């Protein structure tokens, strides 16, 4: 079975990772594929332009996963209008730190505001999919009900795709690990701040948290079985 | 005020970060400075040898912080003898993934076992310090009472030092951020898997989570005020 | 200051409870005042008919609280259509236990379903109010973002009104207590399963968790100061 | 199968509660059976004298449960010496409210202090048992690692015995319910503040949270099967 360990492709025995590989107890967690990150516009409140490249590949992966009965959970940031959980409360740190690197973000105050177009999904969200729509900071797990939902569905493996490999995806992978989910991150379906941090985040996942795989290898294994 | 943003030293106005800089509402969180990571022996169950270099610098920083009334919270991994929360339950992921990079870890089963010498502190822990001794996986916050403790002490800023910049420190910084603490990571008092991942983890902190500082700059500011 | 201790009115010194009494750090948490509990119809999926009596008194209290700048947080149960977090997952215990006492509840499967009329508020919810709309079981705090929201607003005292004194209100008061909020339950603005359990739940609050007060006494104290 | 519903014995079909009755996925949670509650002395810092009557019956039940392979998890309150998580932080509410009912508690400041005799177990705790020793307020679940531990052991049913039926036991039963454990409270092995509140707490459990049973009925069923 091919996985990526610290930037290198590696063959590892699937037998060593059986608990990671059963689609019957797996959910796909797709993070923050919404217009607030992906819109190609100077008004985009929290730009993650590199993730635009994976919109269609994520859609294609989700379609295949659904045919195998794997639930898709779409998670996104939504903040209360009025700012009670962010700008009018204790503001998120990234609002001050990220601009130190990229410069001012003119429309950041509009990020994720409930009811605004910025919270609209860009990837396909089907009625049978599951949605978690109150991510407030970086993690998909806190303060949302994602863990509650996954436990109800007796999910034990989570497969991540989506935006900000070195931020929300990595944070969510840490949380999933601490909650004892088996963690897989799909190397070709996540995008980070830039190449170096994306690569480093994947390396961290591969050393500390779980498996880094290509989506086609995971799909092929789910369908045909994983080579021992 | 000097901070590090994506590997570069930068002068930023202290006035922009006033809520980060008050020692009266700050605690230092020192992570996993115990023999199980730091022992210079082939039996060391979870080696983090690079962090040996920061034992004395951390001690020196803690002594200064104590004189300013800043509490030190020492957090470490402790696992129940018998394995109920790890090897005899759902095993931690790193046990299978980290060896893919570094090769077999002969004594890994002994890691953090309650009552064993591997859980002994290497840094100075004084009676007035606070201790959190049931970290079970990577985060200092879950499933421990660290957040409960910090709220009781009305702490709003956390300063991290200690081991595995790209693992437990980064995970704890993510959690602290999501819980809305103001986060500072001390660049000279943390060590990671290797230089590149250590550097990348600090870059992630600096972009998404809070301030990366040198300990001497923080101490000097606490003592003499931060230059606007 | 009048409070109720184990069913008895008592005068206690306000000076002993100063940290409970500042409206500037207080929020009102109004629990489950929706049609799914309150509708006067045989279709009502989870009937709490006794709470109908407090709809208008709660509205009146909220109006006064708003004039004093105290935020109102309305919390309600909402379950995903399709049942992933309840009937099609691990079903809530009350579905099997409550009918042992009251007999079959014909429309229980419709309880709290997202998008259905059963989730509509019965009390007044104004645009400036705050809403938590993903309570999944009994507590207002888990797995919702209520604690996250209150911390962002630097709230330290919570005042409860609403439905099921001996169930969701009591559960939420326990949680608030464990999170170190100062807890007040308004005796005249909560209703339980029946008189004895309502009374017992208030006694438990008064012994273990915080203050049981009449809403008029709290309002009068907020306006005119509490007599020492 | 005999259960208690709102103070009345009732025969219910075991087939309706199969998910509650498998010892292979069950743990016993024994709460706060320590000298700080049970010591027969005027110095006892948080007296729960009625629970002295169940020390031996609890021991007997635990012995039988162990022979069936059911793990016993002993949970107790322990507070840091120095008071950082209680008296020198945000003090627990009961310190001010419980004395309104029972009068001053002279040695309350000594309650649960780490390293003191007041934290010693009174019931038998065997080496193979599991221990959770950082309960800080009322719940066995927060801010402890009890949920983490139970998930690691793939426990889905929790059986409660121990002290303060209407306080820590009830709170823990609420939490277990919200976390979707199947909940059983052993009517003969818990004791509350007094008869009425103990009875009311059991009624609340029976209506909202799970099954109230006699320990002998549960043991007999575990051994011989539950009558349909």
TrEMBL record, chains A, B, C, D:
Q: Which InterPro entries match?
A: Isochorismatase-like_dom, Isochorismatase-like_hydrls, Isochorismatase-like_sf
- CDD domains per record: cysteine_hydrolases (cd00431)
Superkingdom of the source species: Bacteria
For this protein, the record's SUPFAM superfamilies field holds: Isochorismatase-like hydrolases
For this UniProt record, give its keywords in alphabetical order, as a comma-separated list.
Hydrolase
- In its keyword annotation, does this UniProt entry include Hydrolase? yes
Q: Which residues form the Isochorismatase-like domain?
A: 26-217
**PANTHER family registered for this protein in UniProt:** ISOCHORISMATASE-LIKE DOMAIN-CONTAINING PROTEIN, PEROXYUREIDOACRYLATE/UREIDOACRYLATE AMIDOHYDROLASE-RELATED
This one is known as Isochorismatase hydrolase
Taxonomic lineage of the native organism: Bacteria, Pseudomonadati, Pseudomonadota, Betaproteobacteria, Burkholderiales
